[in-house]
């Protein structure tokens, strides 16, 4: 197939994005178990930040390589206004690159639409829109189901059922509100959107599911810690709230951009035992982790700078891209 200059440029960006992202993504996936073991030695809040940074690493690193190396070499060394034949593999890689990016955008758009639809429904069916015990905006729903969702990305609101309010004591309600306020303060729903926006390794796959679930678990533990503040009384109250809500009838499954008080895929017993038992962590410095990641970023920028000022290096990159197109 013969393609003009700018169509080849777009295809080359897509193909190189797919290949570089696949290499980085597979490396991250293979190291996932070791990464999670290391994260378990950190405080939950630090572990959640650590996993979030690593989840962005393949996408950010690939974007830097494509825009900082592949694109300049093509624009500088490829003759303009030329047409060339391209191979089937090049087209397949370009389509895959476009597919993983489009899939991430579509699933994020669907999640945002579902979140907005639920928010409209809450506002139309709520029986009360305020509660003196919390600073969170609240939609109280007339339902016996165990509904405790922090819904919304940019202006999150707490969706709460009357059944939950009747089940919990005033002190237990306060522990729930402190937990959800911690989620809002850390912008966890917005982080969920960012995770949806990061591409997978293959189109329509869930390559990073293990790390995403671990991030969600650490975020819950971090919100528990923020809500209790190492106070035994607050810890006991929150643990009792978890058990009481869990004993209620099955509730609706939360949407992708919701933070549920009791996520359906988490081990409740582990969370309760954390609250009732001592919480200790090995001395793993979050500052050291940030320093390592910062040094890696600086090394990548330095490498790109060297390549851009060395014509022979860009020539080598261009030759590799020529092999890719054919």
Quick structural summary:
It contains twelve helices and six strands.
Notes on the protein architecture:
With 326 residues, the protein is mostly helical. It has one domain. The chain is 68% helix and 6% strand. The chain has 12 helices and 6 strands. It has helices spanning 5-30, 32-39, 44-77, 88-125, 162-167, 170-185, 188-197, 209-228, 232-246, 268-276, 286-309, 311-325; strands at residues 2-3, 84-85, 138-141, 148-151, 157-161, 259-260. The strands form 2 sheets. Strands 3-5-4-6 form a 4-stranded mixed β-sheet, sandwiched between helices. A hairpin with a 5-residue loop joins strand 4 and strand 5. Helix 1 (5-30) crosses helix 4 (88-125), helix 3 packs across helix 8 and helix 6 crosses helix 9 (232-246). The longest helix is centred in the N-terminal third of the chain and has 38 residues, at 88-125. It is elongated, with a radius of gyration of 24 Å. It starts with a strand and ends with a helix.
Q: Give the rounded overall mean pLDDT.
A: 83
The number of helices is 12
Silhouette: elongated
* Fraction in helix: 55-70%
Can you tell me the number of structural domains? Answer: 1
**Biggest pleated sheet:** 4 strands, mixed
Write out the strand line-up for the largest beta sheet, numbering strands in chain order: 3-5-4-6
């Amino acid at each position: 197939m013969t393609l003009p200059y700018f169509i080849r440029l777009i295809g080359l960006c897509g193909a190189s994005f797919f290949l570089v992202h696949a290499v980085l993504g597979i490396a991250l996936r293979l190291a996932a178990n070791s990464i999670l073991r290391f994260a378990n030695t950190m405080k939950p809040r630090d572990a959640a930040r650590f996993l979030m940074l690593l989840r962005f690493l393949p996408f950010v690193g690939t974007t830097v390589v494509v825009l900082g190396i592949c694109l300049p070499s093509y624009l500088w060394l490829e003759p303009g206004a030329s047409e060339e034949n391209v191979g089937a593999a090049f087209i397949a890689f370009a389509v895959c690159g476009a597919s993983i990016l489009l899939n991430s955008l579509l699933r994020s758009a669907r999640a945002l639409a579902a979140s907005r639809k639920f928010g409209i429904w809450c506002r139309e069916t709520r029986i009360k829109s305020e509660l003196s015990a919390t600073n969170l905006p609240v939609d109280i729903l007339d339902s016996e189901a165990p509904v405790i969702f922090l819904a919304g990305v940019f202006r999150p609101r707490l969706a709460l059922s009357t059944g939950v309010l009747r089940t919990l004591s005033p002190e237990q309600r306060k522990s729930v509100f402190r937990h959800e306020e911690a989620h809002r303060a850390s912008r966890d729903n917005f982080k969920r959107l960012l995770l949806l926006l990061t591409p997978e390794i293959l189109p329509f796959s869930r390559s990073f599911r293990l790390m995403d679930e671990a991030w969600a678990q650490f975020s819950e533990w971090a919100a528990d810690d923020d809500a209790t503040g190492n106070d035994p009384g607050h810890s006991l109250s929150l643990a009792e709230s978890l058990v009481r809500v869990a004993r209620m009838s099955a509730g609706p499954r939360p949407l992708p951009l919701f933070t549920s008080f009791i996520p359906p895929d988490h081990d409740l017993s582990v969370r309760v035992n954390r609250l009732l038992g001592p919480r200790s962590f090995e001395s793993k410095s979050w500052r050291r982790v940030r320093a390592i990641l910062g040094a890696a970023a600086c090394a990548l920028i330095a490498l790109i700078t060297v390549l851009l000022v060395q014509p022979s290096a860009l020539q080598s990159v261009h030759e590799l891209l020529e092999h890719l197109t054919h």
